[in-house]
Design brief:
Helix content: 55-70%
Distance between the termini: 82 Å
Strand content: under 5%
Shape: elongated
Length: 702
């Protein structure tokens, strides 16, 4: 229960933090979108520029404040607002209200105050009392000063009660306002120390983070700390909602005026119809909202934040539907807004005319939709391959992924058909169509590979050509995608030279040429070379077939299946399926069992003895049947040479030196046979007396 309450409290603080930062974005957006009149003289122009710069600077500082400092700033701000409201009410009451006759002049055309005198006075006194108490509470004033401030706010109303002359009442209201303003200035001046230390702390913190972590982590930390995406999202939705309410109110007012001018009925049915909008009016309102929703850089950022939220939840829904748990696939909420913002900057969306802006936004949305579909295919393809390669037989696991793949094929076809049916061929339509065709090709390649793996799963025999077929299918798809990348580069170059060239478009073309053309060609060529090298290595290894496989009482150490048709022998005498070993050699050039190099020269592979997967050599059958050598004979059956005294001593010294080796350096076998050419003679080509060194006894045998 306590944890739930704490979580609710944290969420409430987060919502309040975002709500308090949104007005800063509104102020900055209003300053950037305000009309600038250059014909007011240089003094007026400098004053306007100074006001704009100060407004943007103060709003930016408030936007970047910490949560505690932000709450304190708004506490002082609301206290100042309450003081200003109290002063304005006193001035309005003394200048426009006659208490005894209850006569007043309506302000701004609204008649909000009651007409009778006592009710009017009591209402204003209650409002001023609430404002005074709120002002005192927010500024945290002491008891004596608090009473004086409330008394100062109430004095002009008392002047109305005792019927002071109008000039005296206005003078009292002016002095009351000056006293309240002086008190506010003193309170704010006393908090300048807090403001100085807060700014100094922020500066030191930023400098420390910049020196330790760098600019990138500093920006990321600030981005998360102020919840900038949420601030932009709330800003855009609030702005669009307010504009929608204003437009609906204007439409209803125009309808009412047109009905009054034509003498229309004013019954309840006509009022009910006034709340309903026709399709044409609704479309016009929606178009105006969309146009005004991207008329500046901040509104484009806000729309990007909204797109980020929609794409994020869409990606999570698709991941849950197909049963994927990959963290990398949750980046759709980041990729979609970045791409939308880049397209907006590339096409100059916010600087276009309203009609052109709507058309350009629609085209950008089509490009964004195709990019999102490509990303969704990247999410579903690993799941599809995993299900097919693991031979999962549950239809419930395959159906969601296949359904999404089918949708990824149908949606681009439907989009291309609709666009070609309504628009003529141009560079934009060509780009969208190319992306749609490329997506359909990717889906076909994925489904083809999926079908190959599923066919291999239902087969009882190892399909050694499966890897080749998968490689051919994917290579064909990659080559076609590479050609599409080259074509799109040409389309972008044509657009930049003859339609709308910009620096951002040039940068995007360079990035496209690097990532989608150069790197793709480089990776494809690297894959081809690795595959050709792996095939060369596999073909250089000896192969066992037929009756020879019966002597291998083991399975492939990679797939744990028996050798049905053939097996490849590595130089370290381990057996594997050719297909399994080739997949391994794509990754590294060592044996999966002992990590020795697999591809060696032909002359170094001079032993063809059989071995098990432990690497031990099996003795030939005739040698095994011959039995141990007779006394006085060596391993070849020849008479053993007699050792002279000095030769025996040298052999004993050599054996003793070998026996003193650390046991950790010896291999973990029952015995180690040393090569006769290397160890057979020492000290004048005298053969040593010992042939074997036993690890267990660490002694020599005669």
């Amino acid at each position: 229960m306590a944890s739930t309450q704490a979580r609710i409290g944290q969420q409430a603080l987060a919502v309040l933090d975002v709500a308090l930062r949104v007005p800063c974005i509104f102020i900055i957006d209003a300053i950037f979108n305000s009309y600038y009149d250059p014909g007011s003289g240089w003094a007026g122009a400098m004053a306007k520029v100074l006001v704009r710069v100060m407004g943007v600077l103060i709003s930016s500082v408030v936007l970047l404040l910490s949560q505690k400092a932000l709450f304190k700033f708004y506490t002082l701000f609301f206290a100042v607002l309450l003081g200003m409201a109290a002063v304005l009410i006193n001035y309005y009451a003394t200048s426009h209200i006659d208490f005894y006759s209850a006569y007043y002049k309506a302000a701004l055309g609204f008649r909000l105050l009651p007409r009778n005198g006592p009710t009017l006075w009591l209402g204003m006194a209650a409002v001023q009392l609430v404002f005074g108490i709120g002002y005192v509470f927010l500024l945290n004033l002491q008891s004596v000063f608090a009473a004086l401030v409330v008394l100062d706010i109430m004095i002009p109303l008392w002047g109305l009660m005792i019927e002071l002359p109008a000039d005296v009442r206005q003078l009292v209201a002016v002095f009351s306002g000056l006293a309240l303003a002086l008190n506010t200035a003193v309170c704010l001046a006393m908090r300048l120390k807090w403001f100085y230390y807060s700014c100094r702390y922020v500066y030191l913190l930023v400098r420390h983070m910049y020196r330790i972590y760098g600019l990138q982590l500093l920006l990321e930390d600030t981005w998360k700390r102020i919840r900038f995406p949420d601030v932009l999202r709330v800003f855009w939705l609030t702005r669009v909602t307010a504009q929608a309410l204003i437009l609906v109110y204007v439409v209803r007012a125009v309808r009412r005026e047109s009905g009054d001018a034509t003498g229309g009925a004013t019954d309840g049915s006509s009022d009910a119809q006034g709340y309903l909008l026709s399709w044409d009016v609704f479309w016009d309102l929606t178009s105006n909202l969309i146009i005004s929703g991207c008329d500046s850089t901040l509104t484009v950022l806000g729309m990007s934040a909204v797109i980020s939220s929609v794409a994020h939840h869409l990606g999570l829904s698709i991941l849950a539907f197909i049963g994927s748990t990959e963290e990398e696939d949750k980046r759709l909420g980041f990729v979609a807004p970045v791409l939308f913002f880049i397209l907006a900057l590339q096409t100059g969306l916010s600087s276009l005319n309203p009609e052109e802006r709507l058309v350009r936004l629609s085209r950008n949305m089509c490009l964004l939709l195709t990019a999102i579909l490509h990303f969704i295919h990247g999410m579903t393809d690993p799941v599809l391959m995993s299900l097919s390669a693991s031979h999962v037989s549950s239809f419930r696991r395959h159906f969601p992924v296949l359904l999404v793949s089918l949708a990824l094929f149908v949606l681009p076809v439907a989009l291309s058909y609709a666009l070609w049916h309504h628009y003529a061929l141009n560079t934009w339509l060509f780009a969208v169509t190319a992306f749609c065709v490329e997506l359909c090709l990717k889906v076909v390649v994925s489904l083809t590979v999926y079908g190959l793996f599923m066919a291999d799963g239902f087969s009882n025999v190892l399909w050694e050509k499966l890897d080749d077929y998968v490689y051919y299918v994917r290579s064909t798809g990659n080559i076609i995608e590479f050609l599409f990348g080259v074509i799109m580069f040409g389309n972008g170059a044509y657009t930049m030279m003859f339609e709308s060239g910009s620096k951002i478009r040039a940068c995007m073309m360079c990035l496209h040429a690097y990532f989608n053309i150069y790197l793709q060609a480089k990776n494809g060529w690297k894959t081809f070379i690795n595959r050709r090298t792996a095939v060369k290595k596999i073909n250089s290894l000896p192969e066992m077939r037929g009756d020879q496989l019966s002597d291998i009482e083991d399975v492939c150490a990679i797939c744990y299946q028996e050798f049905a048709t053939s097996a490849r022998i590595t130089p370290c005498h381990h057996y594997f399926h050719a297909l399994c070993l080739r997949k391994w050699l794509y990754i590294q050039d060592t044996c999966p069992m002992c990590h020795q190099r697999v591809y060696v020269e032909e002359e170094s592979r001079d032993r063809a003895a059989f071995s098990n997967n432990n690497g031990g050599y099996a003795a030939p059958q005739d040698a095994a049947a011959a039995g141990p050598p007779a006394p006085g004979e060596n391993q070849d059956g020849q008479p053993a040479a007699e050792l002279p005294v000095d030769g025996a001593a040298a052999g004993a010294q050599a054996a003793g030196g070998v026996a003193e080796l650390d046991n950790d350096l010896l291999e973990d076998n029952d015995s180690i046979e040393y090569d006769e050419d290397e160890w057979g003679t020492q000290n004048g080509n005298t053969p040593i007396e010992e042939d074997y060194i036993n690890d267990d006894t660490d002694s020599t045998e005669d």
